[in-house]
Amino acid sequence: MLNTKTIDKYSPLADKLYQLIDDSGHPLNKNWKPELSPEAIQQAYKDLLFARTADLMAVSYQRQGRMYTYPPNLGQEAIHIAAGLQIKEQDWLVPAFRELGTWLAKGVSLKEVFLYFKGHEDGSRFENAPRVLPVSVPISSQLLHASGLGYSIKYQNEKDTAVFAFVGDGGTSEGDFHEALNFAAVWEAPVIFVIQNNQFAISVPIEMQTKSLNLAVKGIAYGIPSLKVDGNDFFAIYDALRYAREQAVSGKGAFLIEALTFRAGAHTTSDDPSKYRSAELEEAWALKDPLKRLKGYMEYAGFPLPAPEDELIASFKKLIDKEFEAAENYPQYRLDDVFDYMYAELPDELKRQKQNLINAIGGVK
Amino acid sequence: MKVMNLVQAINDAMDIKLKDDKNVVVYGEDLGVEGGVFRVTEGLQVAHGANRVFDSPLAESGIAGTALGMAISGLKPVIEMQFDGFVYPAMNQILSHVSRFRNRTRGKYSVPMVIRIPYGGGINALEHHSESPEAYFGHTPGLKVVIPSTPYDAKGMLIAAIEDPDPVIYLEPKRIYRAIKQEVPTEKYLIPLDKAKVLQSGEQLTLIAYGAMIREAQRAIAIAKQQGYSIELIDLRSIWSIDRETIRNSVMKTGRALIVTEAPQSYGPAAELISIINEEAFLSLEAPPTRLTGLDTVIPLPLGEKYYMISPERIAAEIERLIKY
């Protein structure tokens, strides 16, 4: 378990990686025991399998022409499930766009996720998920919102409250990444920045993104404690996030985690990874698949799977299909939906433009 | 009542709101200890504390982006861009998020924040200190964009902006920061953010301006008066949304319209106003609605600025041409 003493062993300046289990799921240190109970680990496995099944189905709905562009999560789910377990109800989640498992843990419904990627803003309302921001498309821009939320938490003296903010490896090249880290550091804001380093920013490999030793060192320059973690090792990322949150809410300010992972799928359903990466690379990372490693640990530790995997997947698929049907049967997009959320009160100019549109299309609403 | 210039009136508005609402915070570059490069926030940090009025790191995107985070979580940030030409690094945050967060989240999150920007030329400044960027904001759905031209309006409009549930770009005509003094009520009052104001009634031509151009327009009207012309002057005050009714009523009465802006010509507020006049008052027109604007050039450094800035004489000449049209 990470603590204020052991953390120094994993200095990003020495390019150390925090890892607890190997590729087969066996502990690196034979004396290591997870802090989670067997039941909690079984539940994490189920959550991960559920998120993966939903994600694969989302890709297939897209392929069937029932949904527009979608960014797959395959291969990165351990980070999302671990963050989902560490994030509290009072915490803010500031997503980029590839954190499905964490959104679900925060109370976002699959129906909403599907609705959003089918092309309806109502999918970003997150009815039952307080303190979750919508998908942020302009890369890294969301991190500044996280730093501002962190200021707000301190200003309003909210106890035991943190912000979890996500970005990708490419996002670390954006100016807003650096401004956000700097503001959070200066303000000692309780923000946990998580870089999902999945090796490629669409097609551009990490080597073309930075000359830094790793991405975690970027936090050091801002005076932010930082850690490079095996993001496909559920136990390591879970523990790193636990430690980061403890630090943040105890008044020590921001924390940066680089979670090393691999996007096994495409950037979005519009892209073809075979153009920019080799089959060998994909195969090498497949050995580090987070679900496989979690199951490997369960087998090693002698925990049974909660149910045969194919049975679980079959039951999940039914639930997921129901959510998708709910998104498909969602009420039609109304003309009002275009106008009515632009301002608290519709300004006269927009009332006029709305009426003109109604007149032009024959009063259809 | 107290005699105030624009700087004092703006300061007074922030002071009142800081007293009035503990969720108001004011931050930007050099505005805490120093009180701002124009001293607009002078004394506010001492009066309200360094967690409410403070200097942030020097990064405009950072200022705007963090303010969004504050605004969606219960605070009401009033942020300052030190100069017009320094707002550009913040444009991504303003255009991509500040203006859109309410719509994107279907009203779950609103962004009650004010972005104050001293703007405009004529102050013998360095490059990037004399720009008129209002068209960028007026072209951005989801913002309200206002420009006061008097201390009285400056105070009432800033209080209204801070109380508004949506983001407001509040442009301050820095050229006249200390040029106009006026009796201003010491208590709180609000001025609507979407209403133009008829400053002077007249019969033959409607002159529309805002910000520092109001003073030039008034000087031009004095010249025109000597020539026997009766001019109506409208202070637009709101760049978005534009008060169609006030403009329509005036142009239907006068039949002529001249728009004066310091901003570059193309795709600017004057073009928008002429379109509105054509839509609203075409059959009343006795001359083509006309614009007198800044140039589609970079605003020159001080020694060349005289070619860019619009003088009262040029406005007066254009008034005469249109009346004789």
What can you tell me about this protein's structure?
- Chain A folds into two domains: 6-333, Thiamin diphosphate (ThDP)-binding fold, Pyr/PP domains (Rossmann fold, 3-Layer(aba) Sandwich), CATH 3.40.50.970; 334-365, no CATH class.
- In chain A, 44% of the residues lie in helices and 8% in strands.
- Chain A contains 13 helices and seven strands.
- The mean pLDDT of chain A is 97.
- Chain B has two domains: 2-184, 3-Layer(aba) Sandwich (Rossmann fold), CATH 3.40.50; 197-323, Rossmann fold (3-Layer(aba) Sandwich), CATH 3.40.50.
- Chain B starts with a strand and ends with a helix.
- The relative contact order of chain B is 0.12.
- Classes of the chains: A alpha/beta (365), B alpha/beta (325).
- Chain A binds chain B through residues 92, 121-122, 124-126, 133-134, 136-138, 141, 143-153, 155-156, 175-176, 179-180, 182-183, 186, 341-344, 347-350, 352, and chain B through 25, 51, 56-57, 59, 61-62, 64-75, 77, 89, 92-93, 96-97, 102-110, 141-142, 144, 164-166, 194, 240-242, 244.
Structural descriptors:
heterodimer, A: 365 residues, alpha/beta, Rossmann fold, 2 domains, 5-stranded parallel beta sheet, two-stranded antiparallel sheet, B: 325 residues, 7-stranded mixed beta sheet, 5-stranded mixed beta sheet, 12 helices, 14 strands
Query: What is the CATH topology of the largest domain in chain A?
Result: Rossmann fold
> SSE order of chain A, as H and E?
HHEHHHEHEEEHEHEHHHHH
- Tell me what portion of residues of chain A adopts beta-strand conformation: 5-15%
Per DSSP E runs of 2 or more residues, the count of β-strands of chain A stands at 7
**Strand order in space, largest sheet of chain A:** 1-2-3-7-6
Low-confidence stretches of chain B: none
